[in-house]
């Protein structure tokens, strides 16, 4: 009887453990099924979200001047969805005031892109993948928070226009930048440059340059290397003198130097045929004023505007140089007499 009791006890324990094992397995199977269902639902949700985002992006497509343009303005798009890569035929991005924080790394997929305009956002970085856009002609990133320009940008060999104005902390360009052989228009205004980068001076096709609102303290002596430059904006900097070789910039017809610390105007600039120069608000040594013009009738207001424009313009520049030369001769003659 004892043996029977022991066998019965063992059988009961075995049955209990088998029951527990079976229940545990059923619980695990149920959990696995729930996870599978959640994954399916999540995948379905992800697919649905991608479709919704893609449909929303497609609504932003426009055709302008024969180009397919993605235009998003004054909406909240802090990031761009990955499904955007399905629209690689787009040739121009116009994304303004959306709070965009990042240029996606999949930007390299847009080999048809000609214009990338992301002005007035919150972009902090130009991704290195930008260098794969060898057909890109315009890159506009003004009024963002870019602090660094990657050397890979120099691989954008078709780039003709680059605007990175008002990024505040930007103060350096990579030396490889000089490889942009087709770059014609460059806006680096309202940043933190203390000198004109040599790689900019070496750009062979550059015609238009804005360095206003930086902290430039001097200009390079070989500035005349910029042979095709016709417009140079240098207002609101800290320039105290101009290099003599600026007179050898034969293509230069617009030169703005207002709000600097210039004490004199180089005499060699007298023969420059600038269409427009401006020396307003500089602590120039000589006090020179243009002769008043006599006007009549309806021409008064227009002539006053012309006088205001020319007050520190080309005519003023030539008169200043002539006056400086007169005074120099007077000092020299006085010195000779005294001897």
From TrEMBL:
Example of a GO cellular component annotation carried by this entry: M band
Main location: cytoplasm
InterPro entries according to UniProt: Leu-rich_rpt, Leu-rich_rpt_typical-subtyp, LRR_dom_sf, LRR_domain-containing
Entries under Pfam families matching the protein: LRR_1, LRR_8
Cellular compartments annotated: Cytoplasm, Myofibril, Sarcomere, M line
GO biological process assignments: cardiac muscle tissue morphogenesis; heart contraction; sarcomere organization
SMART domains documented for this protein: LRR_BAC (SM00364), LRR_TYP (SM00369)
PROSITE patterns for the chain: LRR
Keyword entries, A-Z: Cytoplasm, Leucine-rich repeat, Muscle protein, Repeat
Highest rank taxon of the organism: Eukaryota
Any coiled-coil regions, as ranges: none
Functional description taken from the UniProt entry: Component of the sarcomeric M-band which plays a role in myocyte response to biomechanical stress. May regulate expression of other M-band proteins via an SRF-dependent pathway. Important for normal contractile function in heart.
Protein name per UniProt: Leucine-rich repeat-containing protein 39
Organism: Seriola lalandi dorsalis
